[in-house]
């Protein structure tokens, strides 16, 4: 005698459910891996930005006639130039340039700071104008 009202899952239904669960788990692994990479990049960009802000604040705090605010060589942002570059932290290089403002070179300079991560894709660039105080 057979029972016709037996309820349960067939082998095919169980295999389909297991396959769906496996695909969902693999998708979650991919999402977590991508999120981890994005978080790592964001952390490096944030740190590079903090290093750039630190140097920018230092340069803007200097008196206008300080020797550190002398015009920099043209390649100061593309190559490590003494007195216009440093390595503030492991894995980061920082370069800056000082350029007289074209419209008023005696009264203002453009300060540009570039911080690069050696791991790439984590650059920070700040630009500011420092003007002589009126008076």
Structure, described:
The protein is α+β, with helices and mostly antiparallel strands. It has one domain (11-131). Helix content is 38%, strand content 24%. The chain has one helix at 11-61, and strands at 85-89, 92-100, 108-117, 124-131. It has a four-stranded antiparallel sheet with strand order 1-2-3-4. A hairpin with a 6-residue loop joins strand 3 (108-117) and strand 4. The protein is rod-shaped, with a radius of gyration of 29 Å. The N and C termini lie far apart (109 Å). The model has no long low-confidence stretch (mean pLDDT 92).
Quick structural overview:
38% of the residues lie in helices and 24% in strands. By secondary structure, the chain is α+β, with helices and mostly antiparallel strands.
Entry keywords:
alpha+beta; about 40% helix; 1 helix; four-stranded antiparallel beta sheet; about 140 residues
